[in-house]
Amino acid sequence: MAVRLGFGGHGGQRARLNKMDNPFRPLLQQLSRREFLKRSGASLVGLLSLPIMEKDLRLGKLLDPKGNVLPLGRITASKTDGYASPSFSADLKKSYWQDLVLNITGIALGGTDSGHNRVWYLIEDGCYVHSGDVQPVEIRLNSPKLDIPETGLLAEVSVPFTDAPRDYLRPERLRYRLYYGTTHWLSAAHQDDNGEVWYRIDDDKWKIKYYVRAAHMHIITADEVAPISAHLPMEAKRLEIHLPEQVVIAYENETPVFMARTATGARFREGDYTTPTGRYMTNRKRPSRHMAAGDGADANSYDLPGVPWVCYLLENGISFHGTFWHNNFGRPRSHGCVNLNIADARWVYRWTYPSPTLQTVTLIENAGTMVTVTDKSLGD
């Protein structure tokens, strides 16, 4: 569970949720590091409950304040089930398939049988679906832009998903399905015979091109990537990743100002991909990266265009980055990277040094924000 509780948005949705962008920050700033660790302890449930109970908030109240609406939810798993109540032991009511988009009408905490992630979403048809298999999304259409500069424009998908064909004149010939919150560099704009505008994406990993409907892409502005707490010197900021609790904590001097649940590297049948402990720095960044590995036949291979807000820690590619293929943070499951929800990954990207500009494609410097990856529990 991240400080934004998994509900990352932009545009209209972000405006509605702006006052909750980091609801824990006022509380965290009141606590010294010692007090924070003492009060959160080694219990992940305690860590998650701390700000909510302190402020007498409930999840539903926090995520659905008066006058706001909950987002839609896209099913991320190949199949997930809906239950009569927020529990895997409740009566099974129906199944949902990947990329089905549903209205989220409520949120609830399940019992201990929910595992490490106790958050459930109530869906429009009255079923409860575990949040780990649901990406909160929105539908926001955008006005096309025909004049794309030579340097390109950074944009993010603003609908649950959009299909990207090889040729905008042959939209049935698909290259990729691009998902909500993924980021891509737009290199040109074209109009088809019906007058619809398509943006061209020059893939940053493979030597291929594909096209995406302009209405489905939100062009990112300078304000949306502006540095956070830029007045602080580099040595005043640092990050801790606690592997036992699967949590990321940001400190300004010794004051915790941000925390997020993460999913770090795991052990798989074919090898150990555990995120290595040690001290690193965020001195290499990319706002968008096509990540791929394997031959496609391996169950653990992946091909993920537009992974957003990447802050590298190691030369082998281990990094912080946004994650759209699951929403199940709090347990190791990656190939070494530090998975965050997209809103939290953007926060880390903006808060850490060095500070990229809007037109940054790749930023490499000799220094950056220090990151400690530890296998010690909070409070040890």
**Beta-strand content estimate:** 35-45%
Helix content: 10-25%
> Major β-sheet, in short?
5 strands, antiparallel
Per the principal axes of the C-alpha atoms, what is the gross shape? globular
Rounded radius of gyration (Å):
20 Å
Strand ordering within the main sheet? 6-5-4-1-7
Distance between the termini: 21 Å
DSSP strand tally? 26
Q: Which structural category do the helix and sheet elements fall into? A: mainly beta
Low-confidence stretches: 1-24, 41-68
Summed up, what is this model?
The chain has 6 helices and 26 strands. The protein has 380 residues and is mostly beta strands. It has a 5-stranded antiparallel β-sheet. A 5-stranded antiparallel β-sheet has the order 13-12-11-8-14, with no helix packed on it. Strands 17-16-15-26-20 form a 5-stranded mixed β-sheet.
